[in-house]
Structure formats: C-alpha cells, structure tokens
Amino acid sequence: MPHPPTGTVSFVFTDIEGSVALWERHPEAMRLALARHNAVLREVIGAHSGFIFKTVGDAFCAAFATASDALTAATAAQRIMQAEDWRDTPITIRIGLHTGAAEERDGDYFGTTVNRAARVMSVAYGQQILLSTATAELLRDQLPGGLTLREMGEHRLKGLINPERLWQVVAPGLRQDFPALQSLNAIPNNLPLRSTSFLGRDQDVSQVRDLLETTNLLTLVGSGGIGKTSLSLQVAASVLDRFRDGVWFVELAPLADAALVPSAVATALGLREEPGKPLLTTLLDFLCQRQLLIILDNCEHLVEACARFADSVLRTSHETRILASSREPLTIGGELAWRVSPLPAPDPKAQTSVVQLTQFAAVRLFIERARFANASFQVTNDNAPSVSQICWCLDGVPLAIELAASRVKAMRVEQIAERLGDRFRLLTGGSRTALPHQQTLRSTIDWSHSLLPQVERVLLRRLSVFSGGWTLEAAEAVCAGDGIDSAEVLDTLTRLVDKSLVVLDDLAVDPRYRMLETIRQYSREKLVDAKEVEQIGDGHLTFFTRQAEWLEPRFYCPDQVRWYAKAEVELDNIRAALEHSLSPTRVRDGMRLINALNRYWVARVYWREANGWLKRLLAVSGSEDHTPLRARALFVTGQTTNYYDPTQARIFAEDSLRLARSLDYKEGIINALWLTGWLNYPKLDGAAEPYFEESIELARAIDYVYGAAHAYAWYGVYKIGVGDYEAAKLALREGMVQAERIGDYFATKLALREGTSQTERLGGDATLLGRCAGNLGLAAMLQGDFVAAKSYLDQSLALVRGADNRNSIAETLWLQGRLALRQNDFDSALYHFKESLALYRTYTTSVWVTRVLVYIAILHVARDQFTIAAQLVGALDARDKAVGSINAHLGSLASIAEYQSAVEKLRAGMPAAAFDAEWKAGHGLTVEQSIELALS
Fold first, then answer.
1. Number of separate domains in the chain
2. What is the pLDDT of residue 7?
3. Are residues 206 and 250 in the same domain?
C-alpha cells in the first residue's frame, strides 16, 4: 500500500451512476457486480501509485502524487469498466479529477480541494471523466498519446461559491457524447465571485442551511468582520438547487437612504418600476408565486427599513426566503436570529504542536491569507507561538486575521504579534475593492460605533474598564452616573448585545458579559478621549475591593472552592483594579483588595504574583505609612513569600510585627507572631516557641479566632518537628476547634463593619482543618500508629481536595507518601510523592520541593535503587548550596534522621567510585533537571 501523498495532491473521485435503481432491480447480481467493480478500481488505482483513502458505498476516493498518474488511472478504469460484460447490471461510473493543496491526517484528507474534487465528479455522467482547470493545466503539455481535453465551460457546483471551468477527457475507445452537465448553471442567481476560499465554518454552513428549511427569515447576527457575508454566500451556494427561481444577493452597505431598500432588491432581481404602481407592490407581486432566496447583506444601518421590507415579503409570499446579515436582529415576527461566532483559535499559553495548531480554523485562515501575501510563508516550530498569539489576540475574527496576514509580505509574524497592542494602526491595508468600512480594522468598528445612540456610546466606552468580562451588578455599580441611570444599564447593555458589540455568556453560573478584545481596545480609546479613565477606574477599583472583602470570609468555609472560583473568574478585573490602585491616592484600596484575597493567593499558588503586587503597593504607600493596613500587607507578603523564599519572608514578618506592636494593633501582632514563629521553626533551636506561645496567649485573650487557629496549627507542626508528639496533638486538636469557627467569625466581623446583621452561617475552614488532620496523621505515624495515621491523612486529603487548595493537597500527598514508605508500600509512596512534586514544580526553590525530593531519594534507597538515589543525593547537595540548608528545609528531627540514615545506607551499598560518579552527575543537574529525574 503506497503512502498517502502530501502537499499538492491530485484526487480521483468515482461512483456508480444510478446504483440505487440497480440495487432495487437486481440485488443479487449487484453484489457480484459490485465486487468486480471494487476489484477493478483497487487494482487500477494501485497499479498507478494511487492511495485509496476512503470508500463510501460504491464511491471511491483516491489520491495521487501526480496529475498524470491520476489521469492514467482514471482512463484505464473507464476502459475496463466499459469493456466489461455486466449482463443484467450495466454499471457505469462517473469520474472527477481535481488538484490542489490538501491536509492529510491519519490517512484521510481534509480541505476545500477534497470538496471541489467531489463536486467535479457529481456533475458528470456515467462513462464520463471530468477535470477541473487546476488538473487540466498540469496535464496540458503531458497528455498521453491519443488523449485530448474538451472544454465544457464554467459551471456552478453545489456548495461552491465560485464556478469551475471543467474539461472532459476525450480518448479512443471511450464514450464522447453526453448531455449538458448536471451543474447548477440553469438556476438563475447573481452570487458574486470570491477571490479567496471559504475556510473553517463547515458546521455553521450545515446548521444555517438546515435552519433555512424551517424559517422564511433567518438573520445572521455578529460583530463587524466576523464573516457574516462570507457565510451567507457559502450557504447560498450550498442551497442553490433548492430554489427554482434562484438566489439573489443584495448588498445594502453602499445605501445611505432607507427608502432605497426595495429599489436595491428590485435591481438585483432585474425588475423595473411600473408606471403608476409603487415599486414595493411590483416586487411583492413578482415574489408572490416564486420560490427564491433573497440575501440582504449589511442591514445594520437600515435595520428598520429592512425589517419593514422583510415583513411585507413574509406576509405575501410563502415560498420566498430571506437570509439577512446584520449586527443586530431585524426583530420582527417570524424571524430566527443566528449568531455568528469567531473562528476557533488556539490558546497561546497551551503547548500546541504545528500539526495541532493547523486544526484551528483561525490558524488555517491566517496561513492561507499569509500565503497570498508571501507565497513562501510556512508555519514552523519557531513562528508557531506567534501565529497562535495573533489568532488568539484577534479573537478569531476573520477580518482582523486577514488584515494581520496581509502584513506577512513586509513583516515576520513575530513582529506582527508584538505590535498587536497598536492593532488599529497595524491592521490596515485591506483589499481596495472591499467596502470602505471593511478596509481597515478601525473603519469596521467606526461603522458600528457611528450607528449607536449617545447613551449606548457612553456605556460601551465605560465597559472597556472591565478586563475578562463583567456581571450586570458590576456594570450597574461602575458605569452608572453622569448621563446613565443605574436603571438604564440593563436595557442599554441588552441593546449592545443585540448589536454584537457585547457578548453575553448565558451558560455561566452567573451570566457574564464581555467584549472582543479589539472592540475593548477601541472603546478604551473612546474612554480616554472622554477623559473618564480616572473616574471609571476609581469606580472599578471600589467595586472589586468591596467584592474581595465580601468574598474573604467565604474563603474560610467548607465550600471555599466555590468562592475561589468566583475570584478566579474575576482575576483579570482584580489585576486591572490593582494596577489602577498604584498611586498615593488609591493605594489604600489596593492594599485592602489584595489583603482580602490572601487565602486565595495561597490556595491557588499565585505566590509570586501576589508578592509582585504587594511589593509595588508597599513601595507606593511608603515606609512612613504607619497604619494597620500596611502592617497586614506586610504580613500577607511574608505569608505568600514563605512558600518559595523563607529568608525574605522572615524579614516581612518581622517588619509586620514591629509595625503592629508600635500601633498596638492586636490582630496584626498575633498574626505576625505566629508567622514569625513558623518561619523560625525549621531551625529547631527553640527560637520559634516564644512567638507561638505569645500569639496563642494574645489570641485567646481577645477571642481572635483566625489568629488562634493558625497559631495552634503551626505550633503543633513545630512540636512534631522537635519530637514532642503529645504536645503536638494537643495543639493541633485545639487548632481544629478554632478552625471550626473561622468562617462564622469572619462573617460576623464583616457584618459589623458594614452595619448589617449576619444571617449566613459559613462554618469552619476546610483547608486549616485538613492541615491539622494531616499533621495529626504525621504525629500518629511517627509514633507507629499507622491505622490512626491513615485515618487522619485520608480525612485531610478529602478536606483539602474538597476545598481545591492546591498547596495543601500537595502537602497532604507528601504525608501520604511518607506513610506508605513507612509501610514499605513503595509503589504507592512513589505515586504520592510524584503527584505532590508535580503540583509544586513551578516553584523550584520551595521548601516543599526539597522535602519531596528528599523522600524520593529515601524511597529509592529503600528499594536498593542506588544509582538514581545517588544522583538525587548529589542534586540535593547542590540544592543545599543554591536555596538553603536541606536540614532547615526538612524542619523535623525525624526527617533529618531518616535522610541521614538513607545516605549512610546508600554509601555502604555502593562502591565508593560508583557513588562518587553518580553523586557528581546529580550535583551537575539544574533544579529543573533534578525534578525531572525525580519524576522520571
């Protein structure tokens, strides 16, 4: 079997003419005849290096590397088939050939070339061979002796917008006389020709075509440049044979006078005004008994006139259908609106191969249009990320992608991607023959903006302050005022959705709105021009600060994962609000916002990002800011930094403690105390204990539940570290008692601050409960009570998984691995360690990465896998010098003893030279390579 040809491919499609009738009349004979038919085609195609990639019923689809092989095979097949004695089943096959670029995947082919080959075959008769012009041009100078090509003229083929000039193969021994081809030329139409192919909307075409069967008025709705016109034309080409009296395209964009809509339709249909009779009446009389499709393109600036015309047609003609395109529905009875979506585009953050990339319609469009600009353009591993970024940043909008692709003639795709921040300057230079409002990206949006009433323009520009979408509540809070009443926002927003300038995601739990990024950038410019950036930005910051403070108590309840998700969906808005807060007059709101999200940053492992914002905010507020708000910001900075840089975290914790003491800010003192204790405990020298004891004493004195819960929890971990397991268990159990109260405690505090009564019971902190349970399991394990340890650790993992606290999940998995290792269940231990390490791997300097690597090394020693263990020990020694003492990172006398014992066993179990060689190999690994080694 030959390999499937790639690149430019010549396709041969065949099927049996009238096979259904033959099967009805002679079913038994047809079985034998079909077997012979199949054998002939397989033999002939194979003999000429053809690749059969599909058979459907009696149809064969074959691909050839050259047009000459394809023609020779087709001619040979026809000769054999015509010479065969078929007796009662006179089989005749029709054959079509077409050549072009096609995409091969897993032995099948996709793309417009394949579709066109099928259509060429479909208009032939049995015993006839038809060629497209592309194939004919390749064969013109290399036809085998005796063969000629007869021009058959241009023909419209079903589903194809542009006609195809066809050629019949004339050869000795083959039938030459046939009736007129079975094309759509007889059906009247005025569909304009396209200079480019239609890509990426096969499913849309199918859905719209089916909807046209059920409605007399279908409106394609979408933003400018989304591809409504292209889709309309493609649908029209696919249904041409359904309309006896034709398909008629009416371009309305050039019209400035609404009264001219009937005239434009009449001109397309070839009708003239009759004396003494209104043109609309003449039109309706003409349409009354006709079966045709009218395409009203670009209705948005004449939407009322188009609605009146369509309503009149629907009332008088039962067989006339209208396919309209507009940026908003016509909104009349009987209309079905179908929203045209952007083309699917790849997420540039995903690791996508070149092959995977080309599966996205937006990318395929970019590639084809780029090749028009630069015939040598190709997607490579080097430029693929930039192609992905372009298609994603342009929201999969076809016009924007085509304009970007046109720049390939003068720029590398990397340069185009870099300049998308100024896309309105970059994306110009469209086709000179295009409508004026489609020649540049800015003119396309200008066209939509110019049609808006003033109140819609105001709301649209104010909505640009949102990043990543918004809720109705947010729009009402941020955008109302100075010309827009809060009560007007919903109706105005709905009209912007209708006009395709705003997108409604009504499948979300809380319905959200968003703009395509291009429209958002345009609207942002209008916000700047209106000098409203500061005012609307302040409202945006205030709204999301209040929302964060409303969310804060809910981050400490059993269903905290629900509230993490709510924060996650607003993350882009939170980032925008924080950026806006970086000024002396707004910095307090910025610190309130980021402080309230403390648990969210930790749980979602956004440690470095949170630190980046905190450090910028602290710099703006300045060291002269002696307020509880700054003390808490220093505490949050220390807490998040702890996970990847404990040394720096200790500095922030101590600064927070000093400032809180100077202000007698008791809650701040308590938090800074337990955090400072936690950051000192890995030393195991007793320095941490006074901090924990003072924190617990103060927290209990003022019933500060959050501080008490954390102080007890980390004090218990410290006691495990120094080997005092009974004291550890007492502290951890008390930590769980306090953790059960945390959610309700925060909710009460919030209600008091806002002057409202607390009616919602939030319950305990699942994350802290899970951590305490996990450490109770560790204490039980170290005391040899594996049954209790397993019970606690299972409880812990269920709690932290339920809270989706990734940091705590990774920690509990590490503890599960340690228990399995103690029980000599090495496979389970390795599984848990690897799962834990995978969650931490982006923070390579974290103490938790060190801890997991240490225990994977201990595990390999226990399994007598000394080679990899020695390499990991070498890597850990290098890590000791790079990120700090291994013993300090382990933070437990038991862990230190286990690791030292494993290293001693390793040295004793290997020849010294072998150990040194493997240790040296491991010592030379980067941190990332040592993690890969552990995960391998």
1. 5
2. 86
3. yes
